[in-house]
Design brief:
Elements lengths: L11 H10 L10 E2 L4 E7 L10 E11 L2 E6 L9 H12 L2 H10 L2 E12 L12 E6 L1 H11 L22 E2 L1 E7 L6 E6 L4 E2 H7 L21 H17 L35
Helix pairs in contact: 2-3
Bound molecules: zinc ion.
Amino acid sequence: MPSNFSFGLPDEIALQEELDRQHRTSINDYDAFYFGPGITQFRVMPPHPDCKLWFRELLKHRIVVNDQARTKICPTMLKEPCPICERATELYNEATEDSVEAAKKLRPTRRFAVNAVIFSAPPARSELEVGKVYILELPKTVKDELLEMDRDPQAGWADITGAFAASKGDGLMGVSFRVTKSGQGLNTKYSTRPVPARTDLAVELAAVGVDINSLVLYNLDTIFKTTTYSELKELLASAENAAVGGVGKTPVPKPVAQRPIMVKSTFQAPPPPAEPALQE
Ligand SMILES: [Zn+2]
């Protein structure tokens, strides 16, 4: 894989500068994107120069306290112990109908995060910015289909984030995809189709007024942070207490929808100030 992509601003300082430009405060903060019902057309970006893969498994817990859902990164994806997963195992082992049901709700959902440019999305996502790299969360089935094509030169694809034409100039001749999401809940379906020809991303972006060199890739190995074990344990306890004592309680007014992933911890050190890049 060539690593000298013509865009990227790969280091943390550049990323911080970009976040500053966007009036954002933390490198733990990022723009996430999820498929809405309908068709989303996107291009998966090549890996960040410090990462080997263009995707990363993402495990998230959704904990509901008094009707308010909180999403937390599961620490096991950072190779740390997780009190919520431990509780899920405990409940599963109790093996009653209720406990197994409760265990299922505590299990993390599994998605695959990729850097992506979104060309179009269903109308509900009108806040979409085309000239921006998002962390797009792919369901496993979609990731598997993309990965299969990425590894399949026989079918004429391969290297979907690709740089086939890197030697010809700035262009990245990769493959864009259209994913159609339909159905709801357990019946949600995703169908994945490649856009029929490889295209030069620089040209495609230029057509909508975006300079490919302005794109910033997220480092998928370092961007996801979680809260401490004790904080997660506390959150779990309040969810379980609310569930037990919650019958007949006045419903708490719904808070304003929070960002899907807020992984900041009050106990965590703030991100380090800009300092020389750690790369050699
Ligand atoms: Zn967990």
